[in-house]
Structures are given as structure tokens and as C-alpha cells.
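Can anyone check this?
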Amino acid sequence: MNGQNEWEWVFQNPEVCFHTICATRGGSVIYAVLEDHEPEVWVSDLFSAQVNHPAKQWQVCLAHQRRDC
């Protein structure tokens, strides 16, 4: 945006899909969006900011894994 990189974050569950654009890809975005909510499962690429997610379980994004193979 305006010559600067921005990151699209997508948070979803069976009922809703929430998109937000942030200037950072840092883990602080997770907590700013979710506040005290604890997801059942976190699906993500292996980016380090998402390793300390608040979910009970973690699923590595299979599309990212396939792309990287």
C-alpha cells in the first residue's frame, strides 16, 4: 500500500472468515485479533511468528508444503 509491503491475515472458522491487512507479519497480530480467544486448531505455513500460536493443535498448511516440495 502506498509503496509499502502489507500482509493479509485471514482468520476463519466454520461460521466466519475475517481478513485484516497489517504492516507487520509479526505474532502480535494474532493476539491483537484474537484477544483472549483460543482456537481449537491453528493452520499455517511454518513462518516463525505463527509457531507460538494460542491454539490447542497445529496443522501445517498442506498447500504451502506441496508448493515447497
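Reply from J.R.: I decoded it. The chain has a mean pLDDT of 89.
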